[in-house]
Amino acid sequence: MSAAQNESRKRGKKRYVSGGQQGKRWKGCRELEVGMQGILITCNMNERKCTAEAFNLLNEYADQLFGPEKFQDNKGSSSSEEEEAEEDIEVALKKEVAQLKSSGGKQERRFQALESGANNVIFIKTLNLEPDKLVHHILSDLHTTKKKKSRVILRMLPVTGTCKAFQEDMLKYLTTFLEPWFKTPNSATYQIAFKARNSSHNKREEIIKSIAGLVGKLNPKNKVDLTNPELTIIVEVIKAVCCVSVARDYTLFRKYNVQEVVKEDAPKPDPAKMKSEQNAAEQKDEQNGGEAEKEEEKKKAEDEEKTDVQIREEVKKSEDGGE
């Protein structure tokens, strides 16, 4: 084999190894980790389209709640996207390159899509905003307007805290995490929504029972309500990370499902109308019962009259036979 061929093989092998290592590094730095806040979003077989829809939806409502996203320039002063658009294109490009160089190419945005560790689930990491407040605002608007704004997104679950997905670590973390909602003097009716993905060491019944016991210790007035609770403790375990949050209107907003929440609600029964209909039915039954009673008495009278006629006819026949 010639020296040129050997050199070519070495270069090819080097490119192959380098590419494999680079891919691993990219994936490792973009995964859901303990200490993050954000939003878990479930979809149906199309994660790329789901991510695009999520960015559009989140930015639309984040602008309403928190204002347009702002960035930091080299001197530490903030400038909005609208201001950047007014600058000369060449100046803006140079400015962006300088920003990336100064930050080591790791400038963080308020929404970043990361690998969740489960199929059909994406994690949007949030920066400097309240994910629970944002998600509730989105679902509240969708529930009111009934306007469908996504095709592949199914559920949007806020993640306001994360910890290691072992029962001991979870209970230790939740002891402090749940205090603002459930520790005396605060109290509420609640339910626990637990789901584990790619994690087999956590048993659903054991986790729910342990969390319920913890909530009861924080304040005995906290009561479980599986029909219409004031608060829902969301616990989502993915691999070795446990994502938690406390959500309001979980039942009203169809378990935070953006497809279901825009559907028309089933009409609620009107108590006054139900009582009126019940009274009318009772009156009708009484009327029908009275008429039936009259018919029965009339028939009885007719039978008695018929019996009297038959008796007179039989007496008359017997008298005629005697003569």
From TrEMBL:
What are the entry keywords?
RNA-binding
Which Pfam family is one of those matched by this entry? THUMP
Q: Keyword RNA-binding, does the record have it?
A: yes
Highest taxon above the source species: Eukaryota
Function in brief: Functions as a tRNA-binding adapter to mediate NAT10-dependent tRNA acetylation modifying cytidine to N4-acetylcytidine (ac4C).
Q: Which GO terms describe its biological process?
A: tRNA modification
- Gene3D superfamilies xref list: THUMP superfamily
Chain ranges of the THUMP domain:
141-248
Task: List the SUPFAM superfamilies.
Answer: THUMP domain-like
Provide the assembly information. Answer: Interacts with NAT10. Binds tRNA.
Q: Which family does it belong to?
A: Belongs to the THUMPD1 family.
- Alphabetical list of SMART domains matching this protein: THUMP
Provide a Gene Ontology MF annotation, just one. Answer: RNA binding
Protein name as it appears in the record: THUMP domain-containing protein 1
What organism does this protein naturally occur in?
Answer: Cyprinodon variegatus
InterPro entries registered for this protein in UniProt: THUMP_dom, THUMPD1-like
The region called Disordered is annotated at 1-21, 265-323
